[in-house]
Amino acid sequence: MSADADSSHVPRSDDVAFVLGGGGQLGAHEVGMLEALLERGIAPSLIVGTSVGAINGAVIAAQPDLDSARRLSGVWSRFEQEGIFKGSLVRRAATLARTRTHLHGDSALRGLLGDVLPERIEDLTVRFQCVAASIERASEHWFEDGPLVDAVMASAAVPGLLPAVEINGEHYFDGGIVNSIPVARAVELGARTLYVLHVGRLDSPLTPPRWPWEVGLVAFEIARRHRFVGDLARLPADVTVHVLPTGQTEPQRYNDLKQLRYRDSSQIAGNIARARAATAQYLDQVEG
Questions:
Q1: What letter would DSSP give residue 65?
Q2: Three-class SS state of 108
Q3: Which of 58, 69, 197, 260 is the most exposed place for a label (fewest CB within 10 A)?
Q4: pLDDT score, position 5
Q5: Residue 110 vs residues 28, 98, 114, 246: alpha-carbon distances, Å
Q6: Strand 127-134 vs strand 46-50: parallel, antiparallel, or unpaired?
Q7: Is 120 helix (H, G, I), strand (E, B) or coil?
Q8: Could you tell me which of 22, 8, 68 has the C-alpha nearest to residue 43?
Q9: Contact in structure between 209 and 257 (CB atoms under 8 Å)
Q10: Hey, which residues does 3 pair with through a beta bridge?
């Protein structure tokens, strides 16, 4: 769908933002969307990201072209090949017993990101920011400069799955807690054409929780959707927003526990392909 979309509008190269939301392994949809955008020559002057969107966005901000989008597909395949989030139930239980806060260490993910990202945010080709939730200040924190891997790790530190990330004495959790789809931030930074890359679930109806684990998921979805819809409604009239489609034939279930982890990669290739095809079709309609 598109808010205030105008098919005659050709975005200037200096006002285009890619806004990448959070969503665990469902972030593979964003890879397909990026491929469709970049193969049409739609490149951003700004990228803002949350959680897995920070990972995807940082890779593209290093070099915003189709080759980078394809390399990003390879990054996702490494989640599976290198067992970034794998481990037996016993091993995960042992990690939780030892740390009392999380199921996985973050060294494997940190190593992967170190292989594919520049050292500092300032080294990126495209202006990039990502958001994390500050524990001490109970607020969103935007990383604008400094060590890139640290910033992305902080933005993607899913509570319970990964440890909080400490940077300069402050601790951070996943940015999705405070700003899951940061459209308002992109506008604050000067963008007037937004391409919103998200993971789905926005149209899946919410129902009261039936199981203990659904309580937190329902609460998070209420907060997430309320923030996104409110931010969209408050955008200036001269801002064009393209909310790109995932290509899913059925709404993503908000209560699917797979969304909270990266380790189930069985649908990654399909999610990338469907999102690429659906986004290409959407862009053809907008441009036509």
A1: S
A2: helix
A3: 260
A4: 38
A5: 19, 20, 6, 28
A6: parallel
A7: strand
A8: 68
A9: no
A10: 241
Outline where the chain has alpha helix (H): 28-39, 52-62, 66-81, 89-99, 107-116, 148-155, 183-188, 212-233, 268-287
Mean pLDDT of successive 10-residue stretches along the chain, which has 288 residues:
40 81 88 96 96 97 94 83 59 67 76 95 98 97 98 93 93 95 97 93 80 84 90 96 87 53 63 94 90
Question: Percent helix, strand and coil across the chain, each rounded to 5?
Answer: 45, 15, 40
Cα separation, 35 vs 13, whole angstroms: 18
* Both structure tokens of 119: 């050292």
Task: Evaluate whether 54 touches 152 at the Cβ level (below 8 Å).
Answer: yes
Contacts of 131 (CB under 8 A, 6+ apart): 48, 49, 50, 54, 140, 141, 142, 143, 155, 175, 178, 179, 182, 185
- Residues in a beta bridge with 47: 18, 128
Question: At CA 235, angle to CA 193 and CA 278, rounded to 5?
Answer: 45
For the entire predicted model, the pTM comes to 0.87
Q: Is the distance from CB of 120 to CB of 146 less than 8 angstroms?
A: yes
CB 130 within 8 A of CB 50: yes
Structure tokens at 147: 């060590």
